[in-house]
Design brief:
- The complex is a heterodimer of chains A (946) and B (92).
- Chain A has 29 helices and 36 strands.
- In chain A, the strands form ten sheets. In chain A, strands 13-12-27-26-25-14-15 form a seven-stranded mixed beta sheet, covered by helices on one side. Chain A has a six-stranded mixed beta barrel with strand order 31-35-32-34-33-36. In chain A, strands 20-17-16-21-22 form a five-stranded parallel beta sheet.
- In chain A, a hairpin with a 2-residue loop joins β10 (252-258) and β11 (261-267).
- Chain B is mainly α and 92 residues long.
- Chain B has one domain (4-73).
- Chain B is globular, with a radius of gyration of 14 Å.
- The chains are: A alpha/beta (946), B mainly alpha (92).
Amino acid sequence: MAWISETDLGTKAVPAAPLVTLSIDGAEVSVPEGTSIMRAAALAGTGIPKLCATDSLEAFGSCRVCLVEIEGRAGFPASCTTPVAPGMTVRTQTEKLTQLRRGVMELYISDHPLDCLTCSANGDCELQDVAGAVGLRDVRYGYEGANHLEGCKDESNPYFTFDPAKCIVCSRCVRACDEVQGTFALTVDGRGFASHIAASQDEEFLSSECVSCGACVQACPTSALIEKEVEKVGTPDTAIVTTCAYCGVGCTFRAEMRGEQLVRMVPWKEGKANRGHSCVKGRFAWGYANHKERILNPMIRETVDQPWREVSWDEAIAHTASEFRRIQAKYGTRSVGGITSSRCTNEETYLVQKLIRQGFHNNNVDTCARVCHSPTGYGLKTTFGTSAGTQDFDSVMQADVILIIGANPTDGHPVFASRMKQRLRQGARLIVIDPRRTDIVRTPHIEADHHLPLKPGTNVAVLTAMAHVVVTEGLADEDYIRARCDWDEYAEWAAFVAQPERSPEATEALTRVPAADLRAAARLYATGGRAAIYYGLGVTEHSQGSSTVIAIANLAMATGNVGIEGAGVNPLRGQNNVQGACDMGSFPHEYSGYRHVSDTAVRESFEKAWGVALDPEPGLRIPNMLDAATEGVFKALFIQGEDILQSDPNTQHVAAGLAAMECVVVQDLFLNETANYAHVFLPGSTFLEKDGTFTNAERRIQRVRKVMHPRNGYADWEIVQLVAQAMGLGWTYTHPSEIMDEIAALTPTFARVSYAALDEHGSLQWPATEAMPAGTPTMHVDGFVRGNGHFVVTDYVPTDEKTGPRFPLLLTTGRILSQYNVGAQTRRTANVVWHPEDRLEIHPVDAENRGLRDGDWVLLRSRAGETTLRAEVTERVAPGVVYTTFHHPETQANVITTDYSDWATNCPEYKVTAVQVSASNGPSDWQESYARQTARARRIAAVAAE
Amino acid sequence: MMSPLERLVYMANQIARNFAAQGLDVAALAVADHIAAFWDPRMKAQIFAVLEGGQGAGLEPIAARAVALLRDRGAPPPQSAATKKAGGSDAG
């Protein structure tokens, strides 16, 4: 699409309201009651000059440029803060208004550098535009008076600069930080002429509370806040809307380009997931695409102790196909498998599972959702009938009570967290169930009503105790249950949770949650109005992950909180396309649309489409593949876009499994940790280099659009097609839209999905139906997808990972705002400035007992392994609990985590590992040997001169 | 670290403990269905072998009942039409 500067209507849209008709410059205009004159004029095609107004922020009325005349009213009201009224007659362009606006602009320009031609915002500056619009030709005051032109430019942030000399103190940045992002890091410091924008306590941006979301940069009407890339490259000349490849929020962006060069990513105002907002990753951290470590040529080697040898695509593809066929002939059809990627598109994921089912003739396909949200699929399908969240993100703006359990949205899902914080500032009540005091527990203008700092591993006991309160205090919505669920199942469940031993008092010693707090939280959830549950990996990554998801669903059904806006059960998905990867049949037991491989009718539909017989038996999950490898019966693995050595638990077990295979194929951007054990490396493409779709946490399918050619030569879907063709499969896709057409033809929930429909609606929230062609924002409105909602008894079964004298602390792991997953992308951007290493959070008491101080190197040891990292002494964690991130391979937090996993899905128990912490003076033996091995494994043989 | 076989027994027992609140008969059936739905043929064959080892080798009562139920339904064929088509023997 050609470059089209987004229209700014000046002020926000108002909620639906009766229309008001008025006259603007002689034209009749009808707009909803409450609309500003500025917006009404813009909608009618009349742009009123403005500086402090923008349609992402509340009107402020400070710049005095948008003045208008209103018949019958004295003075010159600001059009941004004056609402329309019936019969109002407005004039936006008169001689007097021109004089006033010029006068205001003279004052601004008298204190502004006159360097437009060399300014980085030249041609993209609202101040420049307004100067032109009001016909400013001279400045009567001259330029010699007191001014702010000597202000020192702040270049501390790696992605943008702040030049106070260019600042007109319109407060748009301050208000963006407050209203949109909700961080409140900026302010106007000083009074009168001394007024200036300040970050935190007048600090540099980098050291301030700024989270670098970019909302201030986007809001700035001048070049006071501007991207360094624009300073370096120049202003963009085209824009293409695409979808972010980081977390499961699925923000859409305008990729603003100059030729084939990406200049900046600007959140798309029309994006239904992000509503024009972004975070530091999506907006700024895309430089990895051009990082020097990116591998662009295919490589092979016979054994993993050899250097890599660069080869042609033809040789790499032929070698891959022949190795898989050789190994299957020697060791059996089920001796090979593959892993799809939640970072790749739906179409690519679909093709990998198709390659395995059609080409490998087995169901040995799994995906990284195995290690994150597989319990969500199991739990929600069991209870509701659909393996997905129930709401859209907009729903949170209708919630009266928000319950967050096992999620840290301000770090993991920051753009949605900003929406959530907007609703909380409007008065919604907040319950947080988390071992850590996450940022959202207490943040500017928000304080949780209840924070239940439970002992890791006791989710089910806590949720059952909440259910106990609901049932025994008569707070269940029995009318809803009788209408929507099986009453007998409810009665059985209610009798179970009502047992005295499930009460908050009886379980307090176990959960460490004070009974009175838990009772109060349960009452608030049940009686506070529309109550929405948001959860993350703190729910799923436990030995009872699936039980916890089911317990959440039970609680929501018991209180009538499913099937209405503002409520529901909402998994916050970790990676950009976890939902999509699961939808596409990436699990070893089911085809796309969550249909079991043993279902004859479903299987026959795929057999007919693909022209082969398909295996009716489930395949191996990732940990089962690794076990089978160590037993010598699983010999080859095709891995697209995943780094299981770093991301999966018990690194040494993963390494042993990979080392036992004869052919490991890694398709990725970089030589990741898994590639240390690979025999074939197929260089992958970035999300900027291909077409496709991602499906976010709200089931929203959105287009990924190619903005530049793949530097490696092929999009990922093309690479998989080449492998399939080399294995004799007659694939002839010429564009990902054809793959989506096949998905839609074979998958009922995707039946109406096509690229044409996506272009028409902007996005589609599956299921799209005839009645709701753009999709279904709220699921289970008229009844549960499975029929009756299914209550399931969830008994608390303690994890077998126990603390004791040798391992007295509980380790839980997670992620941080600036880094993403294993860090393969974000570690190769300037985001490392915020998080250069993993650190171990430890409570002051536990640190004191061990003689540890903040910043000390510590040895972290579990039954599985040990590593070293530096300590961060903090009260964010409770005594007895330690926490770290898993972004850096030098630390390899998963050396510590164990093989324990969810009973139903084998999702690893990342959140509970018994550990000991002690002082250390250097890296562990394992770290040293791993560093040596990595250096050897990454050697690339020099190509001989011709 | 558990051996792969020990892990299979552990998995079966873990599934069983999470259904145990439903009583032996219902739980055993649920565990059998769960293993049928999610375990690959070789894993099923391995757990049958554990049961037939006589002593149950660590299988707890619900899990043992479930594995017996599943075995009595008939073991999944080591080969299917699909796996035969690839021309290789089955690894399991």
